[in-house]
Amino acid sequence: MGAGKPIEWIRCDESGREMVSRVLSGRPFIVPVPPLHRVPLRLGNIVEISGPSNSAKSQVLLQAVVHFILPKEWGGIQFGGLERKAVFFDLDCRFDVLRLSQFLTNRINETCGSISKAAFDKLFHSCMNRFLYVRCYSSYEFLSSLKELCYQIQRKDEAVGSGVHLLLIDSIGAFHWIDRSNQLRGVCKGKNISPQSFQEAIVHELHKLLLLQPLLVLATKASLFRTETPNEFQRSSISNISGERNLFFREYMPAVWQSFVTHRIQLHSPEWNLLDIVDDCACV
Amino acid sequence: MAAKAPLEEEDTKPQTLLLTGILSNTYRACINTAAPSTAQNPHVTEDFRLPWLTGMELLSDTNQNKHFLPTGLQGIDALLGGGLREGQMTEIVGPSSSGKTQVCLSSATYVVDKKFGAVLYLDTSNSFSPNRISRFVNQTHPSLPKEEKERRLQMIMSNIYCQSVFDIFSLLDLLHHVESTLKHTVKLGGSKLCLLIIDSVSSLIAPIIGGKNSQGWCMMASVGVLLKKIAYEHNISVLVTNHMVGGENGTLKPALGESWKCIPHVRLLLSCCIGANHSTATVLKHTLLASGRTANFVIHN
Prior knowledge:
heterodimer; A: alpha/beta; Rossmann fold; 11 helices; globular; disordered C terminus; B: alpha/beta; two-stranded antiparallel ribbon; disordered N terminus; DNA repair (chain B); single-stranded DNA binding (chain B); four-way junction DNA binding (chain B)
């Protein structure tokens, strides 16, 4: 006994194999969403999707939404969805619900071919009710709605009854300039609220949420704050070396967000004459 | 003749303010169950808590309250799937004399003529022309008797509120004013405001952008957020124009470029061919339809 104790003490709590199986059951790999199928994503990951306007960032989000809200199987038909709720934070205020409805309709029709109107409506309603949407016009509103998330989920859960697994933010840098300028002006007396402190608060909230329940967070980031247009020489070097692309788009998100992100995906618009968008997912 | 001061109307109803306090606990979700007129009720935006909508609630709100406003130009209407969407911001970009202002004037006339509601026209470059509007009216109703035509013109003119704005500060001031007025009144001078035009927004914003100064970017972003907020909360369609300037290699580029690009919902490029009597519109960006499609349209002289 006496000799056993120190050995117990240095013995590890769990083996690697045990840990992997524990993590995989708690935060499993999700069935890959079509444009992100190259990136193995798990619940608990924070994915930043950056790219210029026109590079289909919002489209990627919509595809993920449809994938999450569709049931796995419905009336004997395999949809391959996850039947989970998705929460969409619209900071850019450009979400078009008709686009989502069009996309979902197409997906349902594609999968089942012919389906009666009543059955379609029922499926469509149940899917759309798994989608929660909130629109924010400032960083304060974003922060307060993040704080409210758990309560709102509980409220809506009674009606629908399936957990939230997907959190979408379009786009994370929407209020960057406004916050930055407020800081310079010193709007709040005595206390300067910088974009950093906003981001810290937001990251903190997201972190708390992730502790409570495993979520996949997808956030888009418009990369458009270019300091200078590159000349021909730079442009060619950029398209050759993937690592240098980031230099071209100035990073403006604070370090606290950058270190919070687990996956970064860069999209390119077709105008760049590179490969097509889907093939261009590069995990950094 | 149409230049009425838009916001000094007597019909602001302060008594609605009282209701606001009482109703402020109600959720915005009631939009869908309530009658359309209550959708603009002040309590909607007074609430500190943001509305959380499910997909179905959002969809029925869109189907009930966000209609398409036709511009009266067939090519453009077909291209945009019916016209300018309420709740969205449409941007027209094009070189000088490609018909940006004409599209604005034409849609203002058509929307009022078809009794969709009132139009607020913010003019930054003195390009608003009542004569042009009266000619549009003549063209659309060539067979009407003179008296009837006169009456119609009167009606149209009294529903277009024109205001000159010459700097970004007065624009922001005015937009804040519009927002708070709309919050407390459903109607503007008799009929609901349904279209807000800024011709051209770029001539106010472009001069303050650039350099190391972030204030300009902030004001640009603020204008964008404010316009989208007004559009969405009050079911108004916003139409702005953006002129073009010479970029590198002598090619034309929009005055408000990459950073503005992520603000409007729809971006439409106008171009005119010299010699041809029609202009061409190209969709550069759309939330619902594919971009890159083009259509021709004719603006009669």
